[in-house]
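agent: user wants the structure for E3 ubiquitin-protein ligase from Lygus hesperus. delegating to structure tool.
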Amino acid sequence: MAESLPPSGHRYSTRRNTRKRSLEADEAQKDQPAEKTAGKEGEEEPSTSKPGEIDCAICLQSCVHPARLPCGHIFCFLCLKGVFRSCAKCAMCRRPIPRNYLETPDLLEIPMPASAPSGDEEEFHWFYEGRHGGWWQYEERMSRELEEQHKSGSDKFETIICGHLYTIDFANHVQFRNDCPFHARRILRQRPSLVEKRGVAGIK
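agent: tool returned. relaying C-alpha cells verbatim.
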C-alpha cells in the first residue's frame, strides 16, 4: 500500500511547479514595457484642443465661450443652449439644469469683441437678427465658417447651431432652421464698428 503514495505526491509536486511557473510568467508580463502590452483598444484618441483649451463633449471640438454647469461639467455655451432646450439635463451626468441658467450662465471667459482698427482695415463680421430686434454677432468659429463659405461663392450652406440644422442663405440674406423654414431671420455682414449689436451668440 505504501508504494501507491509516490504517484500522489508526484502529482502534488507537479501542480506546485506549474503554479510557480505561472507566477513567474505573470511577473515577467508586468516587467514588459507598457507600449508592448497596450492594445489598440486602450489607446486614447488625440485631443483636438490646444494646450489650455477645454474639449466640449457635445460638439467634440474645443469649447467656444465655455460655460460650466452646477454639476461641474463644461460645454460650449451654444451647445449647452441646444441641450437645455431639448431636455434641460447635463449631457454627461444627466443632472437637471436650473431653469434660469441661460439668463446667468457661469462663463469661464467673457466674450469681449477684439479691438480692431477702424476704417478700411477693420475686418468684416457676421450678425443675425434677434427675435426682438437688434443684431447679435455670431460666435467666432461660426463667423469664420460663414466668411469662408461667402468668399467661396456659395449661395447657401447648412450648419449646426444649438443642436439644430440651419440653412444659411446668402442670396436672400437670411438663416432658418430646416424644420421651421418659414421662421427666417436676417443675417448681416458688416464691420463691427458700424453695427449696434446686443451681444455675441446670445451672451450680453
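agent: one observation worth passing along. The chain is about 25% helix and 25% strand.
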